[in-house]
Amino acid sequence: MKFNWGHALAIAFILFAGYILYFVFRSLGENVELVADDYYAQEVAFQSRIDAKANAHEIGALIMVDQAEEGVRLTFPDDFNNQITEGQVTFFRPSAEDLDRTFPLTLDDHNGIYFPRQLFAAGRYTVTLAWKTEEGEFFVTKEIVI
Q1: What pLDDT digit, counting tens, does each position of 48-80 carry?
Q2: Which residues contact 127 (CB under 8 A, 6 or more apart)?
Q3: For 31-56, b where at least 16 C-beta lie within 10 A, e where not — what string?
């Protein structure tokens, strides 16, 4: 039997099909994590998030994120009137959901909050601060690399 163009075409098709099947089976093994499990509910409340960002526009630029070998410190401005009724700080790790951390926002006497480095794995985090006062709701995001 002689090798002809029909054989070459069949071999090319088999190799192409194997190539496609390799990527299909490989993609089935990938872990796909959502940013949030309740993203539909968050979408409904998105306008309030936009309003909270607008409220915190001036104050957000003044919030400092300081990193040291011991940990991370978030510092609010000195004239911040420590009247937070409720709030939370979330360290969101885009690459791994199990590394996300959420803490209550309770400021110390120096208008700051401290987080020990042992709580975090090294990498990039998006820090979100959300709080309420008598004046309204506020929301700020900061990017850090620990």
Answers
A1: 788 888 877 777 777 888 888 888 898 888 776
A2: 65, 74, 89, 90, 91, 92, 141, 142, 143, 144
A3: eeeeeeeeeeeeeeeeeeeeebbebb
Q: Which two tokens stand for residue 31?
A: 């872990």
Measured CA to CA, the distance from residue 85 to residue 134 in angstroms comes to 8
Confidence of residue 84 (pLDDT cuts 50, 70, 90): confident
| pLDDT tens per residue across span 39-50 | 777 777 777 788
Tell me how far apart the alpha carbons of residues 140 and 55 are, in angstroms, rounded to a whole number: 9
Count Cβ neighbours within 10 Å for each residue of 73-100 and write b for 16 or more, e otherwise: bbbbeeebeeebeebebbbbbeeeeeeb
Pairing of strands 86-92, 124-133: antiparallel
Tokens 């959502």 identify what position?
A: 34
pLDDT band of 95, cuts 50, 70, 90: confident
What is the four-CA torsion angle of 35, 36, 40, 43, rounded to 10 degrees? -70
Rounded to two decimals, what is the model's pTM?
Answer: 0.69
